[in-house]
Amino acid sequence: ARGDLFAGSGDAAGEIAGVVRNAADFYALVPRGLVDRGYA
């Protein structure tokens, strides 16, 4: 899978985003109410 990391806007952020190539773990924080209703 792939995920995008928002580093801001403008030229400096574009330069940072262009060189980030590290493996990472992503976690999603889901409100309990959505989990209880089967949405997550």
How many DSSP H or I helices? 2
CA gyration radius, whole angstroms = 15 Å
Count every beta strand, where a strand is a DSSP E run of 2 or more residues: 0
* End-to-end CA span: 18 Å
Low-confidence stretches: none
β-sheet strand percentage: under 5%
Provide the structure class. Answer: mainly alpha
Percent in helix: 25-40%
How do the helices and strands follow one another from N- to C-terminus? HH
Main β-sheet: number of strands, strand sense, barrel status?
none
Number of domains: 1
State the shape.
elongated
Mean pLDDT: 81
Describe, in plain words, how this protein is organized in 3D:
By secondary structure, the chain is mainly α. It has one domain (1-40). It has helices spanning 11-19, 32-36. The radius of gyration is 15 Å and the shape is elongated. The protein starts with 10 loop residues before the first helix and ends with a helix.
Descriptive terms for the model:
single chain; 40 residues; mainly alpha
Brief description of this entry?
This protein is mainly α and 40 residues long. The protein is 35% helix and 0% strand. It has one domain (1-40).
Explain the layout of strands and helices:
Blueprint: H1 11-19, H2 32-36
